[in-house]
Prior knowledge:
Blueprint: E1 3-8, E2 16-19, E3 31-36, E4 39-49, E5 60-61, E6 64-65, H1 74-86, H2 91-97, E7 116-120, H3 122-126, H4 137-148, E8 153-154, H5 155-159, H6 165-174, E9 178-182, H7 205-216, E10 222-228, H8 234-247, E11 251-255, H9 263-272, E12 278-281, H10 287-299, E13 304-307, E14 319-325, H11 342-353, E15 356-361, H12 366-373, E16 378-382, E17 392-397, H13 409-420, E18 424-429, E19 437-439, E20 457-459, E21 464-466, E22 473-475, E23 489-491, H14 495-505, E24 511-514, H15 524-533, E25 539-542, E26 555-561, H16 574-586, E27 597-602, H17 608-614, H18 618-632, E28 639-647, H19 650-665, E29 672-673, E30 677-684, E31 687-696, H20 699-717, E32 722-727
Parallel strand pairs: 2-5, 10-15, 10-16, 11-13, 11-14, 12-13, 14-15, 17-27, 18-25, 18-26, 24-25, 26-27
Antiparallel strand pairs: 1-2, 1-4, 3-4, 3-6, 7-8, 7-9, 19-23, 20-21, 21-22, 28-31, 28-32, 29-31, 30-31
Amino acid sequence: xxxxxxxxxxxxxxxxxxxxxxxxxxxxxxxxxxxxxxxxxxxxxxxxxxxxxxxxxxxxxxxxxxxxxxxxxxxxxxxxxxxxxxxxxxxxxxxxxxxxxxxxxxxxxxxxxxxxxxxxxxxxxxxxxxxxxxxxxxxxxxxxxxxxxxxxxxxxxxxxxxxxxxxxxxxxxxxxxxxxxxxxxxxxxxxxxxxxxxxxxxxxxxxxxxxxxxxxxxxxxxxxxxxxxxxxxxxxxxxxxxxxxxxxxxxxxxxxxxxxxxxxxxxxxxxxxxxxxxxxxxxxxxxxxxxxxxxxxxxxxxxxxxxxxxxxxxxxxxxxxxxxxxxxxxxxxxxxxxxxxxxxxxxxxxxxxxxxxxxxxxxxxxxxxxxxxxxxxxxxxxxxxxxxxxxxxxxxxxxxxxxxxxxxxxxxxxxxxxxxxxxxxxxxxxxxxxxxxxxxxxxxxxxxxxxxxxxxxxxxxxxxxxxxxxxxxxxxxxxxxxxxxxxxxxxxxxxxxxxxxxxxxxxxxxxxxxxxxxxxxxxxxxxxxxxxxxxxxxxxxxxxxxxxxxxxxxxxxxxxxxxxxxxxxxxxxxxxxxxxxxxxxxxxxxxxxxxxxxxxxxxxxxxxxxxxxxxxxxxxxxxxxxxxxxxxxxxxxxxxxxxxxxxxxxxxxxxxxxxxxxxxxxxxxxxxxxxxxxxxxxxxxxxxxxxxxxxxxxxxxxxxxxxxxxxxxxxxxxxxxxxxxxxxxxxx
Length: 732
Ligand code: ADP
Ligand code: ZN
Ligand code: ZN
C-alpha cells in the first residue's frame, strides 16, 4: 500500500490522501503529522489505499506516524464514522473532536509529566480516624476516600472534596500519611480472582427483581430502561450491574450529566469498588489528567469510566456494560459544533459491541419511554422510595393570593414552620439575578439587550444589567433612557430577589443562594454542599443546579416559584422538560426521616401536568403527551432535523434557507420541508438567526435526503451565512 487516507480537523467532508509507503494495517487509527497547505496538521489514519484519485504530483508525503500511544481501535473508528454520517458532520472534525486535547497537538507526547495519584502509606493506613478531632472533616473525608481506593486517587478528585482539601493533602503528606506516586497504566494486580466489592445495603425486592432480570437475560445487545422514581435506589442497581461486569473482567462505562457537580457519586462508586481503577472524564479535568484517564481506559487498566457526554467516545477494549443515568438530561446533547447525543451514540455503541445498556431515569425522555412501551427497550421499574415516603405535592393557587416578592402566604407559613423545626427548606426558581427585566412604568421602556432579542437581567448585587445569552453587561441606568423618568422598576423575580425577601421576612434564618453566579468561583459549590450537610443553612434559594441528584437529608420543604412560564411555551418539549425538572426538585424533599412537602405556586392548579405530578404519575402523563405528539406529528413519531442559519441580516439568513428549501423540494420525496422561520430567539450576540425544519416518518428517508441535501446547502451558503445541521434537535 502506498497511500493513507487521513482525517483532519477541517470543515470539509472528505479524507485527505498522503503518500506513506511505510504504513501498515497496524497504523490505522494512528495519529500522523502531515503537511496541509502551508502548515503542519495532525490527523488520524482512517484507511490505507493503493491508489488515489489525485494527480501524482499533488500527493504529498506524510511527515511522521506517531507511535507514542496506541492507535484508535477499529470499533471507535466505526463509532466515529457512524457519528459523522448520522449527524452529517465532517469525519475529520468528528475524529479529532473525540481525542483529548493533548493528542490533537502537533507533536508526539514526550517527557509527558506522568499523572500523579495520592495513596495512603502504611502510616496512613494505621491512622485511627477516631483519634482525629471531629472538626477535621476534610482530613477524615480524604482518609475515608483513600482507604477505599487502594489504587490511589487523582489530585483533581481529592481537591474537589473541599476548598481547603489541597492544604489538607499537603499536611497529610508532611505527616507521612499519604504519598504522591506516578500512576501506571498497568491493570491493578489483585490477589483475588475478582476485584473486591465493598458491601452495600441489602437490596429492596424491586431492586432485586431489576438486577435479576438483567442477570438472567440473554447475553448480547439489549437496551434496558430503568424507570425509577427519585430516591428509589437506581444507583444501587447500577452498582450491582457494574460489580457483575467487573467480575467478568469487563469494563463499565457510566455516563452522567454534569459530573463536576456531583463528586459524591464518584466517591460512592470508588468506595464500592476499592480494587478497581476508576477514571473520570469530564470537562472539569485539566488536559494531562484527561489524557491520562483516557489512556487508562484505552489500555484496559481502568475498570470503570465515569464521565459526561464526551466520555462516550472513549476507547474501551473490554467494554461490557453501558449505563446512562438521567438519560433524559439535555446535557447529553451537544448544542454546537458536532451536535451529537451521547445517549443515542451510547445505544449504537452497545449494539456494536453486543452488550447491555441501561438508561435510567425517573422521567425518561418521551423518545425512550415510547420505545419501552412498544417493546424495543425492556423496562424495569422501581416504584417506591427506599427509605422514605414520597413527598406530598400541593399546588398553591396564586390567582387568589397576593404575593410578597413572588411568594404566597401559604409558602411563607410553611417556611416558618420548617424553620421552627430546624429543618431545611428550598425555594426553587429557575432564574438567576434579581429580576428578569427592568421597566419604566411611565413610558413602557424595558431593558433589552442591544445584541440579542432578550431582556437584560437585573443583578443588584454587582449593580449591573446582564444579558444571559451573549454576556453583554452594563451599568444600571439611573433614569429611563427613553423618557428620563428616574423611577425604574424591576419586574418579576430572580434568585437574588427571593433571597433578599426571605432575609427580610426571616431575619434569623441562615439563607444560602445557589445559582450559577454564586457558584462561579472554583470550589464554592463544594463548600456550599458542606454547609448544607453540616446544617449551617436553613433556607436554600436555588436554580436547577440544585435539582439534580443531591441528597440533602435535612431538606423537607420545597417551594416552587414561577413554574408556569413553560406551560404554554411554543416549544413542544417544554412541558416534558418542566415535568422532569419539577420531579427532580420535588425529589429533593424528604429524603431523611420525615415526610417531605412540595408546594408549587401556580395560576393553573388544575393543569394536567401539575395533577400528574401530584399523583407522581409519570407514565400517565407521558402517555398523554405521546398521544398529543402522535396526533400533531411530532417526535418520537417523526424524525426531525433543523437547518440553522446565522447572518448579520435576517433577510440573508432567510434567503439562504429559502434557497435550501427550494433545492430540497426538487429532491427525492419522503420528507416534509417546512418554511424558514426566525429562530425562537431571532437575534443573539449581534447575529440574526433563522431555521427550517425537515421531517419524515422514516429515519432512513430523512437521512438519505440530508446526505444529498447537505452538499447543495454547503454550496449555496457562501460567506455571509453560517449554517449548521442539527439532527434530532432538542430545541426548536
Ligand atoms: P435514585 O438514584 O433512584 O434517586 P439512589 O440510588 O441515590 O436513588 O438511592 C437513594 C438513597 O437510598 C441513597 O441514599 C441510597 O444510599 C439509599 N439506598 C438505595 N438502595 C438502598 C437499599 N436497598 N437499602 C437501603 N438504602 C438504599
Ligand atoms: Zn421611560
Ligand atoms: Zn445579549
